[in-house]
Amino acid sequence: xxxxxxxxxxxxxxxxxxxxxxxxxxxxxxxxxxxxxxxxxxxxxxxxxxxxxxxxxxxxxxxxxxxxxxxxxxxxxxxxxxxxxxxxxxxxxxxxxxxxxxxxxxxxxxxxxxxxxxxxxxxxxxxxxxxx
Length: 132
Ligand SMILES: Nc1nc2c([nH]c(=O)n2[C@@H]2O[C@H](COP(=O)(O)OP(=O)(O)OP(=O)(O)O)[C@@H](O)[C@H]2O)c(=O)[nH]1
Hints:
Elements: E1 3-13, E2 16-21, E3 32-33, E4 36-38, H1 45-57, E5 60-73, E6 78-90, E7 100-104, H2 118-131
Parallel strand pairs: 1-6
Antiparallel strand pairs: 1-2, 1-4, 2-3, 2-7, 5-6
Bound molecules: 8-OXO-guanosine-5'-triphosphate.
């Protein structure tokens, strides 16, 4: 099975991380994720993330450092999630496709009902944020 490459943004403000909840009609409905989406054939991971964040929330962003990856087999598909630290440049967050969003502290990571592919990425992020 060929892995589907998906970008995921880690946006941090006042030491809190932005996460979004997938919509009712979505696959993985109700699960929380780092916003992003599938990389299209003509774009880089960075271009993809900037496009997705504008489409999904109406915000302009700048992609910073690469955090890491998670490869997860959902059975019907293999997801290759790529996490990038991302800076919010402008625009208010307006939900276009998600049912909810929130800013969470690293202490709350373990209480979130994450999309399964995110769990490995969350582990890496937690390590990075608590080791500093
Ligand atoms: N954006 C995003 N997708 C994730 C995460 N974790 C995870 O398993 N996924 C999965 O990765 C795939 C990407 O989904 P998406 O729906 O956000 O991407 P997209 O906007 O390009 O999709 P579409 O073109 O089907 O609407 C989905 O199968 C989704 O369930 C995550 O943290 N962020």
